[in-house]
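Please go through the sequence line and token line underneath and see whether the fold suits the sequence. See right below:
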Amino acid sequence: MTESQFLAERFEQNRDHLRAVAYRMLGSLPEADDAVQEAWLRLSRSEADAIDNLGGWLTTVVARVCLDMLRARSSRREDELEDQLSPSSAQRHSTPNPEQEALLADSVGLALMVVLDRLAPAERLAFVLHDMFDLSFDEIASIIGRSSVAARQLASRARKRVRGGAAPPPVVSEQRRIVDAFLAALRAGDFSALVSVLDPNLVVHTDTAAATPTLPTEVRGAEFWAGHAIKTAQGARAARAVLVNGAVGLVIAPRGRLFRVLTFRFAEGKIAEINIIGNQTQLTKLDLVLLGG
């Protein structure tokens, strides 16, 4: 075995770990693979014999590459989100293997990917590397170019934004029960179960970005809306319950990319009002926090 073959073999032993780090940092499988490939190029140009801890060295390189990629991103939201729910989207999407990315996103947690996307690059790096991959704050500090104390503060700030601060009030548990029943009925296509969690006088508001030609932007009546929702519930699989501005709502996030948010007004144990938000500017203003369980 040649020296280059031996180095390539050692790199392959670390590839899965590096890909996991990069994916959690970037939320995109193609970009994660690009970051891993860049790490290989840098390794192949380095004095590999002088590297004592190859795994740690590669993790540091991938993290720095990901940080640069995050900082270079604009605030735009990808146009292809609008068609990700259609059956032919896999052929049109730029991802080489959308099914593989969907599985990877689901294993990480679709809601987590959405919330991570709200963090500043340095916050995201500190949280991911420390809370998910157990890197020390000294190691993280060397990557982001700040002190260990600053790295700890970044991770703490990110943790609060991801998981919230104090325990949620008891009313959240009841809201979660209702929303879980709502989502289960949509996924099962169970009209009766869906109507049972809706107030008979339900009002549904849909913004123009989320509206469809078959339904007005305002709909009244639980049975009328439920009948339409059952027929067009293809996004339910990608929906997850989260706290939206302090109350339980739903995010629809194919492959971890935020597409729609549903907020609810609850009354007497039922959903009395639904707001469906698709406008990207409005989506970025929402405070999203993970729910436990």
Summary: The CA atoms of residues 23 and 30 lie 9 Å apart. The domain at 3-163 is CATH 1.20.140 (Butyryl-CoA Dehydrogenase, subunit A; domain 3).
